[in-house]
Amino acid sequence: MSVNKEIKRVTTHTLQEMKLRGEKIAMLTSYDFSMATIVEDAGIDVILVGDSASNVMAGHETTLPITLDQMIYHASSVVRAAKKALVIVDLPFGSYQGNSKEALNSAIRIMKESGAHAVKLEGGAEIRESVERIITAGIPVMGHLGLTPQSIYKFGTYTVRAKEEAEAAKLMEDVLVLQEAGCFSIVLEKIPAKLAFNATASLKIPTIGIGAGSGCDGQVLVINDLLGLTKGFKPRFLRQYLSLYDDIKGAVSNYIKDVKSVDFPSDKEQY
Ligand code: KIV
User: Fold this and answer.
1) What are the residue boundaries of the structural domains of the chain, listed by start?
2) Can you point out the beta strands (E) in the chain?
3) Residue 5: pLDDT band by 50, 70, 90 thresholds?
4) Which atom of ligand 1 is nearest to the CA of 189?
């Protein structure tokens, strides 16, 4: 998978081995070269080029508007930075729901045009055929269950999913369907911790949680949320490690002040 023989790339097999030895998997999103370089250099296991780019990069209210071409642009920027991390890319809304041939074509475009290592699709039994077809072509697939933001208009809200017995039972079935279809891992988003624990225990493949508790085999967060870049977004599951929105705003205010007062550039900052 890596052309650089010095660096041992994280692969889907590495993640499987990590689950077996009980080592937690750390995954974060990135959408551009600069951020992916920092995330990579910090030693992340997996970078997800999430369709959350639609929200945090493009300012859309949902993940629905982002296109396959836009995902490929973000993914290829991230791939150029990721020397060791496994890079997984979301198939965006509308690029795989039609039929399995469309799903395969979209996955092939992502792999060929971005150089990423795997794709992620939202859904359970209803996307089984697409998952199998993509995997048959040699492309690793990550599943995504629980709160699946591409279906937000069906759900109506971003609240915790699968609290009711019927939805929890369907999720327990769906994780097994995805594992049987060949997924190498499954994201579990915003579901009760007990359910995520049970789903994780029922699987051979690793689960990666977001708002799904500590019983998952790994965790994922949107990097902009972790860094405190996303104004006013502080759900219970989010641990915010920095307050970059305030820091950057402060820095920009200082810059504006310095320009207006002709403090910048100083003698030392000119030729
Ligand atoms: O798009 C995304 O960032 C995701 C993660 C939140 C799992 O799917």
Assistant:
1) 2-240, 244-271
2) 25-29, 46-49, 86-90, 118-120, 141-146, 185-189, 207-210, 218-221
3) low
4) 7
Residue 40 annotated among the catalytic residues of the structure: no
- H helix intervals, 92-202: 100-114, 128-136, 152-155, 165-181, 193-201
Let me know: does 84 contact 8? Beta carbons within 8 Å. Answer: yes
- The ligand 1 site (C-beta within 6 Å) comprises 29, 48, 50-52, 90, 187, 189, 210, 220, 222
- What digits encode the pLDDT tens for the residues 157-196? 999 999 999 999 999 999 999 999 999 999 999 999 999 9
* Tokens describing residue 171: 């999720």
pLDDT value of residue 217? 98
Measured distance CA(202)–CA(242) in Å, rounded: 35
Ligand 1 atom index nearest CA of 187 = 7
Residue pair 72/113 in contact (Cβ under 8 Å)? The answer is: yes
> What type of residue sits at position 117?
H
The β-bridge partners of 118 are 88
Mean model confidence pLDDT for the chain: 97
CATH 3.90.190.20 fits 2-240, yes or no: no
Burial of 153 (0-12, 13-18, 19+ CB in 10 A): exposed
d(CA 34, CA 206): 28
